[in-house]
TrEMBL record:
Protein name: Beta-lactamase
EC number per UniProt: 3.5.2.6
Cross-referenced Pfam families: Beta-lactamase
Chain coiled-coil ranges: none
Organism superkingdom: Bacteria
Gene source species: Saliniradius amylolyticus
Keyword Hydrolase part of the UniProt annotation: yes
Annotated signal sequence range: 1-18
Keywords: Hydrolase, Signal
GO MF annotations, alphabetized: beta-lactamase activity
Segments forming domain Beta-lactamase-related: 27-351
SUPFAM superfamilies referenced in this protein's UniProt entry, alphabetically: beta-lactamase/transpeptidase-like (SSF56601)
């Protein structure tokens, strides 16, 4: 919060002298904080309909590596779920899947209890009823997808499906297994055919091998001590559950993704599809108590692959991602046609503060502009 106060003071000073707009000053402040925390690198992009996207980068892919640029690949981690929500919605529209399809029909090779009435829509809305993050420990212990899902199929729920919010990663493996069984395809192929190629998102890829074989990718970094980061290995664990956390992307690609979610490519993602994704499905009460966010969140839900927030009276669709060595954040304010993506090759909690401060300032700017426009 001290950072926000300092930022607002500087913004007032710069605005008074007409030297720099609020976004430029915000970017400078982010870079100052990155230097103070000795972050390896990051990149972020802001999309506002009717204006050119603005991209800001800092640092290097690794020590003595190349500077991060708009084409550098990062892991999206759980931001992958936003793509999975959109892909699933399109497959439903094509009649290939159904939101009400029971899991024992979607992936009959796993013995999900039909009496639980667990359905495809419960996966994407994080309302399965299983204990939160069920068997993430098995993912991280490198158990096979099949073994994890067999364990999951025998798990007793803590509530009825659709009745409580229980965030999952392993359960998304049912979707990729179901795609293979029912559609004789795989997640990466369907994502390419239905989302990536139509949107010309040429740098997006699925899987560890596609990341580490690229000539321009950001290496992961973990914190060893205050302000001291070390390069770590890219783990394959969550990549094996690709619909949950298996996508890599660049800033340039994510600009297109933000534009698509702001209804700029209706031939790929229609307004109806986006409305489906961003309709609140299950309340996520714990989000209201997150550090930094709690000062602004009035209500919080999960849609289909997206979180849906009431951010101090404004609608914000959002998702974050975190795997070893990487952080990612993406958000859109549909009512204002604005989107933000932030990608970092370090596990820094500074990400939360950056995102909150951006949206707080953005909504303040928009309200001020509306107020000034209404004055005689």
């Amino acid at each position: 919060m001290n950072w926000l106060i300092s930022l607002l003071f500087l913004l007032l000073c710069f605005t008074a002298h007409g030297q720099e707009n609020w976004l430029g000053q915000f970017a400078r402040q982010v870079e100052q904080e990155a230097r103070r925390h000795n972050l390896p690198g990051y990149g972020f992009a802001v999309v506002e309909l009717g204006q050119s996207p603005q991209i800001f980068t800092y640092g290097k892919t690794q020590k003595n590596g190349q500077p991060i640029n708009a084409d550098t690949l990062f892991r999206l981690a759980s931001v992958s779920k936003t793509f999975t929500g959109a892909l699933t919605a399109k497959l439903v529209q094509q009649g290939k899947l159904d939101w009400d399809m029971p899991l024992d029909q979607l992936a009959p090779q796993y013995e999900f209890d039909p009496q639980q009435e667990l359905k495809l829509g419960h996966i994407l809305s994080q309302s399965s009823g299983y204990m939160p993050n069920a068997y993430d420990n098995l993912i991280e212990a490198n158990y096979s997808v099949q073994r994890v899902l067999n364990q999951l199929a025998g798990l007793e729920p803590i509530c009825e499906p659709g009745q409580c919010y229980t965030y999952q990663n392993a359960l998304f493996g049912v979707l990729s297994e179901g795609i293979r069984y029912r559609l004789d395809s795989n997640y990466a192929e369907l994502l390419q055919d239905n989302i990536l190629s139509p949107l010309a998102m040429h740098r997006v890829s699925v899987g560890r091998d596609r990341l580490v074989s690229d000539s321009n990718w950001a290496r992961p970094h973990a914190l060893v001590a205050r302000g001291q980061w070390y390069k770590t290995q890219v783990r394959a664990d969550y990549y094996r559950f690709a619909p949950a956390a298996g996508i890599n992307a660049s800033l340039n690609d994510m600009v297109i993704w933000l534009e698509a979610m702001l209804e700029q490519y209706p031939h790929v993602l229609s307004g109806h599809t986006i409305e489906q994704l961003l309709t609140p499905r299950i309340r996520t009460k714990r989000e209201l108590y997150r550090r930094h966010w709690r000062a602004y969140l009035k209500d919080a839900h999960y849609g289909l692959g997206w979180r849906v927030y009431d951010f101090d009276g404004e609608k914000l669709a959002y998702h974050s991602g975190w795997v070893k060595g990487y952080r990612a954040d993406v958000g859109i304010a549909p009512d204002y046609g604005v989107g933000l993506v932030f990608l970092m090759n370090a596990e820094s909690n500074l990400m939360n503060e950056i995102s909150v401060n951006f949206w707080a300032r953005l909504f303040e700017e928009k309200k001020m502009a509306t107020s000034m426009a209404s004055q005689p």
